[in-house]
Specification:
This protein folds into 2 domains: 65 residues, Winged helix-like DNA-binding domain superfamily/Winged helix DNA-binding domain (Arc Repressor Mutant, subunit A, Orthogonal Bundle), CATH 1.10.10.10; 142 residues, Up-down Bundle (Four Helix Bundle (Hemerythrin (Met), subunit A)), CATH 1.20.120.530. The relative contact order is 0.11. Helix 2 crosses helix 4, helix 5 runs parallel beside helix 10 and helix 10 packs antiparallel against helix 11. With 242 residues, it is mostly helical.
C-alpha cells in the first residue's frame, strides 16, 4: 500500500463530523477569522465543504466543545473569545487537597517562569516593559490599600509571559492564573509584603535586560511562595507528602 492510499484509508476512518470540524478549523485559519467574527451559515458551509447541514451541525457542536466556536441564539455562530483555550483544562477543580495542588503548581511554575523571565529580559519591547511596570505598580497599590490583589498579580505574570514573544508560554498561562487564584486561599500578610519586594526585583532585572538576574529574581519570588505553602502544611491544615 502506497503512502497516498494509506492516507486516504486513515482519513476514511475518521467520522465525517470530525473531518468537517477539521475543515472548518482550516477555513477559520485560512480566512484569518478573529474572535467575535461570524461564521458562514450551515447552508454556506455545507456547500463549501460538500457535506450536508446535519454534518455541519455536528461539526459545530464539536468545535463548540473545543471552545473554538460559540453559538448565539438568533444571531449565528461566531469565533470564541479565546479560541481553543478551555478553562481549567486539567480538571484542577476536582482536586480535593487544595494546599497540595497549590504546592504542585508552584513546582511547575518554578521550572517555567524563571526561564520565561529570562526570555522577557532578552526580548521585551519598550511597550512590553511599560505594561510590566504598570501591572507591578497596580499590584503594589492594591496591597498598600489592603484590598485583594490576586487578579492584578495574575496580569503581572501574564505580561511577563507575553513579552517572551513565545506562543507556547501563552498557552500555558491558565496554569499560572489558576495557581495565583488558588494561592489566595493560603496567603498571609508576610507574603504580600514580600510580593512587592519580589516584583520590584523582577521588574528591575527585566527592564535592565539582565536575563540571569531576571531568572534569579523570579525563582526567588516563587520559591518564597512555595516555602510559605510548606509552612502552612506543617500547621496541619493539609499534609504535603514530598
Amino acid at each position: 500500500m502506497n503512502e497516498q492510499n494509506f492516507s486516504q484509508l486513515s482519513q476514511n476512518k475518521i467520522p465525517l463530523p470530525e473531518r468537517a470540524a477539521d475543515q472548518i478549523t482550516q477555513l477559520i485559519l485560512s480566512r484569518q477569522l478573529q474572535s467575535g467574527d461570524r461564521l458562514p451559515n450551515e447552508f454556506e458551509l455545507g456547500s463549501q465543504l460538500g457535506v450536508g447541514r446535519g454534518t455541519i451541525r455536528e461539526a459545530v457542536k464539536i468545535l463548540v466543545a473545543r471552545n473554538i466556536l460559540t453559538i448565539k441564539r438568533g444571531k449565528g455562530t461566531f469565533i470564541a473569545r479565546h479560541p481553543g483555550e478551555v478553562e481549567d483544562p486539567f480538571g484542577f477543580a476536582f482536586y480535593n487537597d487544595r494546599l497540595k495542588l497549590a504546592y504542585d503548581l508552584l513546582e511547575v511554575r518554578l521550572q517555567l517562569e524563571p526561564w520565561a523571565a529570562s526570555l522577557a529580559a532578552e526580548r521585551a519591547t519598550d511597550k512590553d516593559l511599560a505594561v510590566i511596570q504598570e501591572e507591578a505598580q497596580a499590584v503594589e497599590s492594591l496591597i498598600d490599600s489592603g484590598v485583594p490583589h490576586l487578579e492584578a498579580d495574575t496580569r503581572f505574570h501574564t505580561a511577563i509571559a507575553r513579552s517572551t514573544q513565545n506562543m507556547i508560554i501563552l498557552k500555558v498561562l491558565p496554569v499560572i492564573s489558576y495557581s495565583e487564584d488558588l494561592f489566595g486561599t493560603v496567603n498571609e500578610d508576610a507574603i504580600r509584603r514580600e510580593t512587592v519586594r519580589g516584583h520590584r526585583d523582577i521588574v528591575k532585572a527585566i527592564c535592565s535586560h539582565d536575563a540571569n538576574a531576571a531568572r534569579a529574581a523570579m525563582e526567588a519570588h516563587l520559591d518564597l511562595n512555595r516555602r510559605m505553602i510548606e509552612k502552612v502544611g506543617t500547621r496541619g491544615r493539609s499534609p504535603l507528602s514530598h
